Amino acid sequence: ILALFIVWQDPYSQLNPFPPPTRYVEITATPGPTVPATATAAPTVEVVQSAFAFSLAGDVIYTTNGNDNGCDWTSIVGTVQTTSGEAVDGYRVTIDDGTNEQAVFTGSAPRLGPGGWELVLGETLINSQYAVQLTDARGEVMSEPLLVDMTGDCARNVAIVSWQQNSES
């Protein structure tokens, strides 16, 4: 019964002998810390109310990669939290460059903070624009799509995107 429940909640689970076809890639580990120790979290800001359950908390923050790869790295990382700052795990963050859509799950990178997630775009500097959006496990859209510009600049090769729940539900 537990296996059936897990497959029902996550059809992409390894327990499903017939998973649906997918273009999503789940990233589960990254060498070293991505956000350097000197980077600071986004300042607390008032979240703008919207028709979606989650809104961007502040602005996208760009920083230098802090792991051993240095400039040979591009990633988008972030957190998803409730209004009280608790982790929101198990939601899907989709990242689309117009030709390739990838996904990662919130809570897969807890070292980044509550509901932390990370998608490594490549082990090189990348100059491209990405649409980033939060959905729940069923695929229901939870946030507005957000455009993130990766500029191929070593000082800005990690983008930090943090969402916060608009109100307790």
Question: How would you portray this structure in words?
Answer:
With 169 residues, the protein is mainly beta. The protein has one helix at residues 2-9; strands at 54-56, 61-63, 74-81, 92-96, 101-105, 117-122, 127-135, 146-151, 158-165. Strands 1, 2, 3, 6 and 9 form a 5-stranded mixed β-sheet that branches. A hairpin with a 4-residue loop joins strand 4 and strand 5 (101-105). It is globular, with a radius of gyration of 16 Å. The two termini are 29 Å apart. The relative contact order is 0.24. Mean pLDDT is 81; it is low at 23-30 and 42-48.
Shape: globular
Mean pLDDT: 81
Output the helix-strand order. HEEEEEEEEE
How many E strands?
A: 9
* Percent in strands: 25-35%
Put simply, the count of helices is: 1
Largest sheet, in brief, is:
5 strands, mixed
Key traits:
single chain; 169 residues; mainly beta; five-stranded mixed beta sheet; four-stranded antiparallel beta sheet; 1 helix; globular
Topology (elements, then pairings):
Elements: H1 2-9, E1 54-56, E2 61-63, E3 74-81, E4 92-96, E5 101-105, E6 117-122, E7 127-135, E8 146-151, E9 158-165
Parallel strand pairs: 3-9
Antiparallel strand pairs: 1-9, 2-9, 3-6, 4-5, 4-7, 7-8
Summarize the structure.
This protein is mainly β and 169 residues long.
